[in-house]
Design brief:
Largest sheet: 7 strands, mixed
Number of domains: 4
CATH topology of the largest domain: Rossmann fold
Shape: globular
CATH architecture of the largest domain: 3-Layer(aba) Sandwich
Bound molecules: ligand MGD, iron/sulfur cluster, molybdenum atom
Number of helices: 27
Mean pLDDT: 92
Distance between the termini: 57 Å
Number of strands: 27
Structural class: alpha/beta
Strand content: 15-25%
Radius of gyration: 25 Å
Helix content: 25-40%
Length: about 700
């Protein structure tokens, strides 16, 4: 007999977690519709959500635990897989080299599956390894530190209530569709102004009041010049500066030198436009600043992040409705780190990048981009075993050729993923993860950062084949390890673990699943740590334009501009051979990083890796729209189809993100950190050249 049901859930194809109604017949997902009464997505879904049936019931699934044997894959039981992994871990522990075990979790496990993320941290703390990498190591950690250093917390743009949006180095129309809808609504309903800052004329730029098109990697100079205008024209919030900040005088003196004319020289943006942008942003109240990760993936990564916070603060837009706010779920959770077990070993990079651990080790204390050196050079220690859970470093980590060598060199590589990926192919053991439709999850509703709600996602169908949730894998491994693991990770199911994290709030998975049709518990609209009530959680209790703490770490406290490590200005010799500037990582609506390429409906819409070039560049190199072209850097080369468009700077090439094989943009990038404070590599703004592929 056919059993049909409609299960309310959330979409996990990207981080936005739009509400969906999933039509299921005999445990097979048939189709997906938007959830009309979902408070944030309001019935919206995109093509990716419609592809969920293909995504889940795909023939690319890893079906069973498997081990590689003389080059081929052999099915094994979960017991054998877990025993093998636990034995290795015990061996390293006995040898006193716990740090040679590392874990990488990527986007799915970190963001949309908080329990998995929490558990992995806890597991590493109990085991005693600091070798813990996660996608934030390439994505947003410098920003978090810049916020904490300046105002003692993160804030996110309150688009709904704003009257001016600065969209800086991000393209939410593709990367956060519901956020984009909100920006459109703010423009329509509040008459909000829009300033777009991007080397590409993204579609949103056509709706903008002002569009600035800087040379990639030079945004810190642009921001310094905007501050110069705001300060010299006294457009800042005097009450805030006087009563709630320290060090503004020093900043004011420091930025005097960064005139819009100087910034024009560096960024290519006309001085008049920089003045206009500064004035528009500073005089339209309230205004919010939405900055993408691209800004941080450059030589001035931490510096631009500092500028972004300082611009908001000096204009009185922190803790202001329609500005930058912190409004979280209001749901209290247990903390996941076990500080007392962490020991003294610091994560790789901690010595070079003190911003990550000097002011507290709770979040993350190192950087990972050149993690390959841990394997290939044993520098600063030898990494022997890696579990990759919910990440695909063969595509997503910079310098693919080096990643490939490093993964090959590992003594033991375990990959847990629902799908066969380039990384899984390299593993000694693969573990079948179930997809987000086959397990419960506790998600923060993301919407371009944070919304005041927590959302429970129901299990829609039972795990396919022999797959398991990430949570249940880590719990089972903890049982194998025994000892302290039984004390600190005592749970036996995903539900038990979730109930533990939620326990301070009195919420349970059962309650959320049974009593809340949408699974959502909304927090209050109250701002968290509003400075007017609580001050700022900085050493001075104020917003710190000058941070003594940074100075004590040996970091010049004021934001500066640093020319990209590889650029026509800083490396003219390389530039002669590689005359164009490369932007990588351009998001496409259909795909989340390297994922979903097995969904036929999405591949029909967007079948291959492409890169954008300007018509003048195209004609100089004899390349026409649709031609395949080689993009080359000193690291390697990738082959992509050309999009010839007026909407990109003539000196720039922009590659689309997440494509496999020879269209993989990370064949072009370097893993070497270029930002001396933030430790990120240059995923944008390095040099390249192109030629038509034969
Ligand atoms: N569909 C989809 N959505 C995603 C993702 C995905 O893979 N697919 N990934 C998610 C993740 S983890 C992240 S971090 C976010 C990223 O989200 P976004 O930052 O919004 O990413 P993009 O949409 O690529 O937009 C980046 C923009 O920055 C511009 N840019 C590049 N270099 C520079 C520069 O030097 N200066 C300036 N001013 N602009 C520059 C690019 O031209 C591009 O338009 O997207 C998230 N959303
Ligand atoms: N050149 C360049 N490189 C970049 C970027 C860039 O802009 N330019 N952006 C960087 C950024 S911002 C980020 S965040 C990273 C993202 O890097 P990753 O997180 O490594 O990217 P994904 O390709 O999404 O890999 C996620 C993997 O998890 C699997 N997965 C899905 N669901 C589950 C699950 O429930 N459990 C488990 N175990 N696995 C699951 C997917 O199948 C996929 O293989 O990429 C970075 N890389
Ligand atoms: S925007 Fe993201 S969460 Fe929403 S429907 Fe599309 S893929 Fe799913
Ligand atoms: Mo990211």
């Amino acid at each position: 007999m056919n059993e049909k049901r409609i299960v309310p859930a959330t979409c996990g194809m990207c981080i936005e977690e739009c509400g969906i109604m999933v039509h299921v017949e005999d445990d097979r997902i048939q189709r997906v519709e938007g959830m009309e009464d979902h408070p944030f997505s309001e019935g919206f879904i995109c093509a990716s959500a419609r592809a969920i049936p293909e995504y889940v019931h795909s023939d690319k699934r890893i079906q069973y635990p498997m081990k590689k044997e003389s080059g081929g894959w052999k099915r094994i039981s979960w017991d054998e897989a877990l025993d093998t992994i636990a034995d290795k871990l015990k061996e390293y522990k006995a040898e006193g080299i716990s740090q040679s075990f590392g874990v990488f979790t990527g986007d799915p496990v970190n963001m949309a599956l908080r329990m998995g993320y929490y558990l992995v941290w806890r597991f590493c703390d109990v085991y005693g390894t600091p070798t813990r990498f996660y996608d934030g190591d390439l994505c947003y950690t410098p920003r978090i530190r810049a916020y904490f250093q300046t105002i003692g917390k993160m804030t996110t743009p309150d688009i709904v209530n704003t009257r001016c949006v600065v969209n800086w180095g991000g393209n939410p129309q593709n990367s956060f569709p519901p956020l984009y809808m909100r920006i459109r609504r703010a423009m329509k309903e509040n008459g909000a102004k829009l300033i777009v800052i991007d080397p590409r004329r993204i579609p949103m730029a056509r709706e903008a009041d002002l569009f600035l098109q800087p040379r990639p990697g030079t945004d810190a100079m642009l921001a310094l010049a905007m501050m110069q205008v705001i300060i010299s024209e006294q457009l800042y919030d005097k009450d805030f500066i006087e009563n709630w900040s320290v060090g503004f005088d020093k900043l004011a003196q420091h930025v005097e030198q960064f005139t819009p004319e100087m910034a024009q020289e560096v960024t290519g943006v006309p001085a008049g436009d920089i003045r206009q942008a500064a004035r528009m942003y500073a005089t339209t109240k309230p205004a919010c600043l939405q900055a993408g990760e691209k800004l941080e993936q450059t030589s001035s990564g931490f510096r631009i992040a500092q500028c972004v916070v300082m611009l908001q603060a000096m204009t009185g837009n922190i803790d202001a409705l329609g500005g930058g706010v912190l409004r979280l779920s209001g749901v209290k959770e247990r903390s996941y780190r076990l500080t007392k077990l962490m020991g003294d070993t610091l994560c790789v990079g901690a010595d070079k990048y003190p911003i990550y651990h000097k002011s507290g080790r709770v979040f993350h204390e190192g950087v990972m981009p050149n993690w390959g050196d841990l394997v290939l050079k044993g520098d600063p220690y030898q990494l022997k075993m890696l579990i990759v859970s919910g990440g695909n470093p063969m595509v997503s980590w910079p310098n693919t050729n080096k990643v490939s060598r490093a993964l090959d060199e590992l003594e033991f590589l375990v990959v847990m993923d629902p799908f066969w990926t380039a990384t899984a192919e390299k593993a000694h053991i693969v573990l079948p993860a179930c997809t987000f439709m086959e397990r419960i999850a506790m998600c923060g509703i993301y919407e371009g950062m944070s919304t005041p709600a927590v959302q429970f996602r129901r299990q829609v169908v039972p795990p396919l084949y022999d797959s398991r949730s990430d949570c249940s894998f880590w719990l089972a491994l903890a049982r194998r390890m025994g000892g302290e693991f039984d004390e600190y990770i005592p749970w036996n199911s995903d539900e038990e673990a979730m109930d533990y994290w939620l326990s301070p709030s009195g919420l349970t998975s059962k309650y959320l699943g049974e009593e809340h049709p949408t699974g959502i518990v909304q927090g209050s609209d109250e701002l968290i740590f509003d400075y007017r009530k609580h001050g700022f959680a900085t050493p001075s209790g104020k917003c710190e334009f000058w941070s003594q703490e940074l100075e004590d770490m040996g970091i010049y406290p004021l934001p500066v501009y640093r020319e990209p490590a590889e650029s026509p200005v800083s490396s003219p010799e390389i530039s002669r051979e590689y005359p164009l500037i490369l932007i990588t990582g351009v998001r496409e609506l259909e795909y989340w990083h390297s994922q979903q390429r097995h969904c036929a409906s999405l591949m029909r819409r967007n079948p291959e890796g492409r890169a954008e070039i300007h018509p003048s560049t195209a004609s100089a190199y004899g390349i026409a729209e649709g031609d395949r072209m080689w993009i080359e850097t000193p690291r390697g080369r990738a082959c992509m189809k050309a999009i010839v468009t007026e909407d990109i700077r003539p000196d720039t090439v922009a590659t689309r993100h997440g494509w496999p094989d020879d269209a993989n943009e990370n064949l072009l990038t370097d893993d070497v950190p270029v930002d001396p404070e933030g430790g990120f590599p240059a995923l944008t703004g390095a040099l390249c050249r192109i030629k038509k592929a034969g």
